[in-house]
Amino acid sequence: MSPFLRFMKQERQLIIALRRNARASLTSFVRKFDIPQSTLYALLAKLEKGAIRRHTCLLDFHALGFHTHAMLLIAAPKHLRRKIEAYLDGHPSVNSFWRTLGTPDYLCEVIFEDEGKLKAFVEEFHETNRRARCQVLHVLEEKGRERFLMEGTSGSKDC
């Protein structure tokens, strides 16, 4: 059984509706699901304590003037990992990063205005973390993002 199916039907419906349009009014969800407003608020409060990390928006970085988007595969000796995590966590061009199982040790998404700034970032990273290896994968075109648990995608059936 899918872990998602362990949630109540109303919770699953609300999660999917929020994934599709988190800006929709709660009143529209009350009408859509035909549930009392108090029930909806209780469901939302419960989800915000666990399943919902934060409410945010997805940006078109290119439209904002950031034309270089890359994924970095970073392999590092164990003794450098905390230093690298602190470096990535504090850098303004790092959009997201994840610790991975095996090698590489990290997957890091970075956004820059141009290729020169990415190159400077990678050079600085290598200078401060000489024993780490960093492979750059340029993102040419986004084909899908934040699609999991939305209607019509894997994991959202039988809600």
What does the model show?
The protein folds into two domains: 7-48; 68-138, Alpha-Beta Plaits (2-Layer Sandwich). The protein has helices at residues 9-20, 26-33, 37-48, 81-90, 115-128, and strands at 68-75, 94-99, 106-112, 133-138. The longest helix is centred in the last third of the chain and has 14 residues, at 115-128. It is elongated and about 60 Å long. Helix content is 35%, strand content 17%. A four-stranded antiparallel beta sheet has the order 2-3-1-4, with helices on one face.
List the helices and strands and how they pair.
Blueprint: H1 9-20, H2 26-33, H3 37-48, E1 68-75, H4 81-90, E2 94-99, E3 106-112, H5 115-128, E4 133-138
Antiparallel strand pairs: 1-3, 1-4, 2-3
Helix pairs in contact: 1-3
Quick take:
The chain is of the alpha+beta class and 159 residues long. Mean pLDDT is 90; it is low at 153-159.
The CATH homologous superfamily name of the largest domain equals Lrp/AsnC effector binding domain/regulation of amino acid metabolism (RAM) domain
The assigned structural class equals alpha+beta
**Average pLDDT level:** 90
Q: What is the level-2 CATH architecture name of the largest domain?
A: 2-Layer Sandwich
Helix content: 25-40%
Q: What fraction strand?
A: 15-25%
**Would you tell me which CATH topology of the largest domain applies?**
Alpha-Beta Plaits
Please trace the helix and strand order, writing H or E for each element: HHHEHEEHE
The rounded distance between the terminal residues' Cα atoms is 13 Å
Unreliable sequence segments: 153-159
The gross shape turns out to be: elongated
